[in-house]
Amino acid sequence: MLDGPHKLIRLSHRPAQLFRPAVDVAEEEDRAATDPKNLARLFKELADWEAMLPTVPLWGSSPYWRGASARDYDDWRPRPEPK
After folding, report:
1. Strand extents, DSSP E, 1-83
2. Rounded distance, CA 72 to CA 31, Å?
3. Domain ranges of the chain
4. Phi/psi class of residue 14: alpha, beta or left (left: φ > 0; alpha: ψ in -120 to 50)?
5. 34-43 in b/e burial notation, b at 16+ Cβ within 10 A?
6. Angle (nearest 5°) at CA 33 between 78 and 20
7. Do the beta carbons of residue 16 and residue 39 sit within 8 Å?
8. The pTM is what?
9. Exposed, middle or buried: residue 56 (CB in 10 Å: 0-12, 13-18, 19+)?
10. 21-64, pLDDT tens digit by residue?
11. Which residues neighbour 1 within 8 Å (Cβ) at sequence distance 6 or greater?
């Protein structure tokens, strides 16, 4: 979720991450622990949006984000951006 300079990433099998893409293009500095105010604000906005959906979001129950594919994602390390 993008909101101004902040980007919240919330996957069902990992802790939430908070980035500032304008100053951290590679998203290497997770600011979730150092910026709890914006983390909580974005979580509330996301929850409000999810509450407006006609059905429960499916991404939390998707088998794609569980098991072997989740481990593959966790093991993946960022690669440098091409020049």
Report:
1. 2-3, 6-9, 17-19
2. 23
3. 2-75
4. beta
5. eeeebbeebe
6. 55
7. yes
8. 0.63
9. exposed
10. 999 999 999 999 999 999 999 989 988 888 887 776 666 565 55
11. 7, 8, 9, 10, 42, 45, 46
- Give the integer Cα–Cα distance in Å for 19 and 2: 9
Residue for token pair 């949006």: 49
Two structure tokens written together for 35:
């910026």
Strand order in the sheet with 6-9: 2-3, 6-9, 17-19
Q: Which two tokens stand for residue 77?
A: 């390390």
